[in-house]
Amino acid sequence: MEVESVQDPSDLAEDPQSGGDTDQDWPCWQARSSAGLGLGKQAEIPEPGCEIVACVLLFRKILLMPSEAMPIRISSEFSRELTNGLEDSSLVTITEQIRFPRLVGHLECGHSRGADSALIGRVGTLARLESVVSCAPSRHASRDSNEGDIDDVDDGSHGWADVTIFGAARFKIVALEPTSGLFHAIARIRVLPDEGSGSLTRIPFTATSIPDFVRQAFDPVSLCARIVASGSRLLRPFGKEDLAENFVLPRTRMETEKFSFWLARNLPLDMRTVRALLELNSTEHRLLEILKFVTGVEETLSCAFCNAALATTANVISMSEVGAAGSYMNAFGCTHQLLTLDKVPDARSRGAPVLEHTYFPGYAWTCIYCYQCEFHIGWKYEAVDTSCIPREFFGLLRSVLTTNLPGRHWL
């Protein structure tokens, strides 16, 4: 296989950037915050039910879940203001001081903008700013409109900052400040609780007429075990067939809540379904809906633009420590969310494999397109290191996938 080391400049908008290690221990659902790398003390998260004023970054077709890390690129000036809590911001003037610096909201907003009243009532993820790395000023203030990224940026004259955010809690927008921008909103948000999450205490049979199997049907710990047993083919990392036996299951209220969000982002669900799972206020409800999916029949993963069948859920594999799905940022600062699969039979590739800026070390990438509408749907990865297994796999953009099964509607 001939690998190019320098890419065509016309392909920069679709160029991946290096990702994480592909040889990590499993399970990986127990993701932890990096404790504010480079930003000192970790940001405090308000208690559920609290209302605060926060800056909410708006994205299209990019969804952050609690306990998930995501790289984004914003202007250096804006990153400084977020780090300082927007206390003396030149971008916005707000009626009360933001009391929780280094917290930012992430909202998948569709086509809405910062001052759009349609944002009120929407549910997003409150995130910590984990690390900020300043970049040199760039004359490119570019994004690929096909991939739906919306970053709050200026014209690049002040430089850029690569920021890692880590989802910490869910929130709902209560009200908007009039000074919201085009790609961000200054909003009053309410931190949402996850109601009822936790293991149900087993009551002695002599004290109740409710059979134990009824309790187990709604117990989150039992639901987690059933999901892993039923959906091991969708959750296992590549080359590990014994996931159901060795998987470390959650045992506490917080662990079942975190696990439900990990499942939501790593199962082959379309964007609409993942968004609906994020909006659910109950861990039990979220796990029950996920159980319906993993115990169902095999589903087709189709192109969201022309409905052409691309693969099936049986093709999903995990190629990194974060699971089958991950967020990555390319050289232009565009954030992509990928789902990894072992086969996409009819995808069309263009160009020679390129090793530079690969998301997966040891693999060269090639852009792939839908065989029917020729829309860019992701990348094919081919091993250039003899120690890499598998020899090839595919990373599909989650934003261009939909799950189709006639007569069946999740949630």
UniProtKB/TrEMBL annotation:
GO MF assignments: metal ion binding
Domain of life: Eukaryota
InterPro entries in alphabetical order: CULT (IPR034750), Yippee/Mis18/Cereblon (IPR004910)
Region called Disordered, residue ranges: 1-26
Domain CULT: 298-405
Gene3D superfamilies named among the record's database cross-references: 1.20.58.1480, Peptide methionine sulfoxide reductase
GO cellular component: nucleus
This protein's UniProt keywords: Metal-binding, Zinc
Signal peptide: none
Name of protein: Protein cereblon
Lineage: Eukaryota, Sar, Stramenopiles, Bigyra, Labyrinthulomycetes
